[in-house]
UniProtKB/TrEMBL annotation:
Reported function: NDH-1 shuttles electrons from NADH, via FMN and iron-sulfur (Fe-S) centers, to quinones in the respiratory chain. The immediate electron acceptor for the enzyme in this species is believed to be a menaquinone. Couples the redox reaction to proton translocation (for every two electrons transferred, four hydrogen ions are translocated across the cytoplasmic membrane), and thus conserves the redox energy in a proton gradient.
Protein known as: NADH-quinone oxidoreductase subunit B
Family, per entry: Belongs to the complex I 20 kDa subunit family.
Recorded catalytic activity of this chain's protein: a quinone + NADH + 5 H(+)(in) = a quinol + NAD(+) + 4 H(+)(out)
Keyword ATP-binding annotated: no
Cofactors, names only: [4Fe-4S] cluster
TM segment ranges: none
Binding positions for [4Fe-4S] cluster per the UniProt entry: C36, C37, C102, C131
Keywords: 4Fe-4S, Cell membrane, Iron, Iron-sulfur, Membrane, Metal-binding, NAD, Quinone, Translocase, Transport
Alphabetized PANTHER family for the sequence: NADH DEHYDROGENASE, NADH DEHYDROGENASE [UBIQUINONE] IRON-SULFUR PROTEIN 7, MITOCHONDRIAL
Gene3D superfamilies membership: 3.40.50.12280
Enzyme Commission designation: 7.1.1.-
Organism of origin: Ancrocorticia populi
Any one GO molecular function term: quinone binding
Length: 185
């Protein structure tokens, strides 16, 4: 920001930064809960934690009106195609937060029924640790996501998308969960 002699000021920025500022001030998460972490995610929107202070408490009932997917809890094999379909139906640009240790790595559920990390099915932007993470931690992860998006420009966005596609391709070629031996190997 530069100041003129008469006290007025001008701001110099780029259209990209203004657009990034706009999209990061009004995330609309899609309504989807998978397990116990979802209870903490619900608390995140209540008056006690008041996520609306940051303009992000409006959970949308349709993925077509949402740009943030919070994977809250372990993802079973049965739910995996549903989660992926919801992600595919969301509007671009879109982001994913993996909430809790189960969503990020399968957590304590080291078995054939649970996907060992939701990054096997969707590209994850933020991994939120904890079992379950507190609502304040979820608020913090959305604020961290904002910083990430604000610092993103065309080239890094392309790189991020390329990395996400590469991760998806690797996940498609990885051994299926029912073939994994886990701790019993
Ligand atoms: S991380 Fe903990 S609270 Fe969250 S789904 Fe797993 S067991 Fe439940």
């Amino acid at each position: 920001m530069a100041h003129q002699e008469d006290g007025s000021g001008i701001i110099m920025t780029t259209i990209e930064q203004v657009a990034n500022w706009g999209v990061t001030r009004s995330e609309w998460p899609v309504t989807m809960g998978l397990a116990c972490c979802a209870i903490e995610m619900m608390a995140f929107g209540t008056p006690r934690f008041d996520a609306s202070r940051f303009g992000m408490e409006v959970f949308r009932a349709s993925p077509r009106q949402s740009d943030l997917l919070i994977v809250s809890g372990r993802v079973s094999q049965k739910m995996a195609p549903v989660v992926r379909e919801m992600y595919d139906q969301m509007a671009d640009p879109k982001w994913v937060i993996s909430m809790g240790v189960c969503a990020s790595s399968g957590g304590m559920f080291n078995n054939y029924a649970i996907i060992q990390g939701c990054d096997h099915i969707v590209p994850v932007d933020i991994y939120l640790p904890g079992c379950p993470p507190r609502p304040e931690m979820l608020i913090n992860s959305v604020l961290e996501l904002r910083k990430q998006v604000m610092n993103e420009h065309k080239i890094t966005k392309k790189r991020r998308l390329a990395a996400a596609r590469a991760a998806e391709a690797a996940a498609m070629n990885a051994a299926p969960t029912h073939e994994m031996k886990g701790l019993l190997a």
